[in-house]
Amino acid sequence: MMNWHLTPLSGLILLAAVIPLGLLVLARLRPAMLARPQFCMLLVALIAWQVGYSLEWGTQVFTQKLFWAQVQYLGIVWVPLLWALLVAEATHQSNWLQLPRIRWLAVLPMVTLILTWTNDAHGLVWSRVTLSAGGATGPLHFEHGPWFWLNVFYTYFLVALSWVWMVQELRRPLSVHRRQVTLLLGISTLPVAANLAYLIFRQQLNGLDLTPAGLGLAALVYGLAVAWDSSYVLLPVARAALIEALQDGVVVMDAANRILDINPAARSMLSNPKEEVISRPVGAALPFLDSLVANPVPQSEIELSPGRFVEARTIPLKNRSAFVGHLILLRDISKRKQAELALQDSELKFRTLVQVSSDAIFIIDNETGQILDVNEAGPPMYGYTREELLSLKNTDVSAQPQETRTATHSTEIGQVLVPVRYHRRKDGTVFPVEIIGKAFEWKGRMVHAAAIRDISERVRVDKQLEGLLKAERIRVKQLDALRMIWVELATEFDLKSLLSKILENARSLLSADTGELVLYEPEADHLRVVSSCGLEKDTSGDIVEMGEGLMGLAAKTKQPLLVKGYQGWENRSPRYATIALEEAVGAPMLSGGVLLGAVALGSYRPSTFDAASMDLLNLYVQQASLAIHNARLFEQLNDLAVTDTLTGLFNRRHFFYQAESLVIRAQRYGSPLSAVMIDLDHFKDINDTFGHSAGDHVLREVARALSSALRKSDLIGRYGGEEFCVLLPEIDLEEGRTAAERLRQEVFNLQIPTLKGTAAVTASLGVAALNLHGETLDQLLQRADAALYRAKRAGRNAVSVEVGGGTDVMVDGSLL
């Protein structure tokens, strides 16, 4: 617990701390005058110093006195720096207010503060401390160390620096901060005198330091002066803010033509805006002002650089009738000068353009419509001489005089565009013109200039373009429909459905009434109708010979055809004898130059088809041909995926896929199902004797014979090599034996001609019936395969039946 006693002196010192505290409150109430950061921080440091000094005096315990002596340094080390910053702001020492410099100046106070609180370890701030002669009721007596005197030197360096700044400011004849600086210079002597008294007469004063009291009194005087008369702060700040914010440049010079002040606007006119020019001769810093200062004139224009101009005004400055310098105001007039130069250039160009323009340019009186002037292009355009035109009114050259009269009287100031108006030449011919009018005041009356352009050629071209554009819109619409149709056709792989869609879309695309689609059958060299629409009856299946009618001729020549007056056409097909068609159009369907078929469309209405229709149909059927080709490829690929390419039977994978379904169905419904495994005997001998090509032919013939001997509901596939597999739905084991024997006999009866003679072949067959108690397809085929090998061992050309785990073998219809 702190042992502090209030003594008269400690109470007075503590009371002195109330002064800066009150000023802080006043700064809060009147921030525009006192709430400057440096001043407020200075007050806080002063409060820390005074409170700590008061508690040092009133505390009775030595260690507590020492603690409060250290607390005082929280204010002592910062007071000189904050004072110097306050003066720097008042005297415009902006370089000293930059943050990097302030950081360097704060290094020594920070070090001093650290050394103060760690003094017991080094003794740099004080080497010895004892109670003063007053004992426990007085301050401590310090024998100061070397760092203390370094801090004293630092303090007086900043004080001396601030005095130099203030003296320099007071010597400036045009200083707006004179009153404020005078006040600061006066009050700074109070704490300096008090501190010198403490340093010199410390023994005589019994350790009493009057510096805090001097600082408090100085702060009180400054605060009251500023609070009582706001001009100490507001007028300099307001004037400086005004000068800094001006868009015009301001340069202040003394009598020796040295620059005393320059605002940002004037600084931007320097070749190097960051260059420091204060105190430099104006001729060196702003050479463009040198002649102006040497021979002052109230106002002049100066060209700083090509295209950049300023207007300079020179104001002499006097102090009590004595000349003390110049104030120069600079205004950037570059835009104005550029506008003036551009206007002069524009006027010259306008005069030139009016004369050389290919458009006729008239100056016309708004009230009367009288032609006042015309350029050189006017007379040739209208067939008049210049004198004749100047004697006419604008309605005299217009083929629409009422519209021209109305437009003339209603013209307001501004530009008006008349896209199309018709004028009349001297010879009476009428021609279209485009008019741009501009009304303005001229010689005290309202007139308008009319630029008139002959647009006869443009109108003619516009009409042509309009027709072409209309045709192009129709074509774009048709092509868009064609694209949508092609998307539909490209996703259709069912050939029959595809052919029907091709014809319907073609009929819709060309707005036709009838249509037929034929496919080419190369083996018979004729065409067959596969789809028709709009006719009295469906003609699907009809034969059309090559060269017959429109479709036959288009297919034969492989060229699109258009027939107008179809009823009288000499090549008209007899099939259309009763159909009263007016027009017909047809196109062949080709794929890589190979004929696929043809499409023909008919119309009962004249002027339905034209050359563009024929081209569109030809384009469409070529896309349709590709769709047909793709559909056929799809069918072929589908066949390749499920059939054996040599025999045409199901391949092993697809056979098993179909067989699984049959086994599942038989198990579900309890219906019989038999399997037959077939293997050709001594097939290697056939390959060796007749050749592999003949062997392939034998396999094809065997596959054909087996397929013809089976029902449509039976399933047969090539199992591998010369092996085949058959599933017989709804056939039990005995019926399966009979069917297998029939198959064996079919193979035995084959006599297959080859290049090396007739080939004969026999087969061994194994039969097994499905066990309905959960037997799988693989198990069924394994039993049939085992029966097959039993037939092989029995001498081949035999049927073996798996019966209850055993086998019966039949050769030539007889059981072994």
Please describe the biggest sheet, giving its number of strands, its sense, and whether it closes into a barrel.
7 strands, mixed
How are the strands ordered across the major sheet?
A: 20-21-19-24-25-26-27
- How many strand segments? 27
The gyration radius over C-alpha positions equals 59 Å
Q: Let me know the average pLDDT.
A: 79
Give the count of helical stretches: 29
Task: Describe the structure concisely.
The protein has 816 residues and is an alpha+beta fold. The protein is built from 29 helices and 27 strands. Strands 20-21-19-24-25-26-27 form a 7-stranded mixed sheet, with helices on both faces. Strands 15-14-13-18-17-16 form a 6-stranded antiparallel sheet, with helices on both faces. Strands 4-3-7-6-5 form a 5-stranded antiparallel sheet.
Description:
It contains 29 helices and 27 strands. With 816 residues, it is α+β, with helices and mostly antiparallel strands. The longest helix is centred in the middle third of the chain and has 35 residues, at 456-490. It is flat and about 155 Å long.
What's the layout of helices and strands?
Layout: H1 8-16, H2 18-29, H3 31-34, H4 37-58, H5 62-76, H6 79-90, H7 99-105, H8 107-117, H9 119-122, E1 126-131, E2 140-144, H10 146-171, H11 178-200, H12 211-228, H13 234-245, E3 249-254, E4 259-262, H14 264-267, H15 282-285, H16 290-294, E5 299-305, E6 308-319, E7 322-332, H17 334-356, E8 360-365, E9 371-374, H18 378-382, H19 386-390, H20 401-410, E10 414-424, E11 430-442, E12 445-454, H21 456-490, H22 495-509, E13 514-521, E14 526-533, E15 543-545, H23 549-557, E16 561-564, E17 583-591, E18 594-603, H24 611-642, H25 652-669, E19 673-680, H26 683-690, H27 692-708, E20 715-720, E21 723-729, H28 733-748, E22 752-754, E23 757-759, E24 763-769, H29 777-793, E25 798-803, E26 806-811, E27 814-815
Parallel strand pairs: 24-25
Antiparallel strand pairs: 1-2, 3-4, 3-7, 5-6, 6-7, 8-9, 8-12, 10-11, 11-12, 13-14, 13-18, 14-15, 16-17, 17-18, 19-21, 19-24, 20-21, 22-23, 25-26, 26-27
Helix pairs in contact: 1-4, 2-4, 2-12, 4-5, 4-6, 4-12, 6-10, 10-11, 11-12, 21-22, 21-24, 22-24, 26-27
